[in-house]
Amino acid sequence: TKGLSTFCTFIGSFPTMSSLMLRKIGTAMESLPTLLTFIRFLTSMNFLMTKKTFLLPKAFSTF
What we know:
- It is a single chain.
- The chain has two helices and no strands.
- The termini are far apart.
- The chain is mostly helical.
- Keywords: Membrane, Transmembrane, Transmembrane helix.
- The chain crosses the membrane at residues 31-49.
């Protein structure tokens, strides 16, 4: 019966869990533009870094 009570507790807590998940998803939707801006920033930084790393070996080969 222990497994059954655990299962019942899980089923009982499911609505609250799903509402929490929905709230989290809603917050994520609100913060999505910020996240996209951050990702865009990261990719541009990455692009600059790769450009630099491509330029660095050339600079070292001139020594």
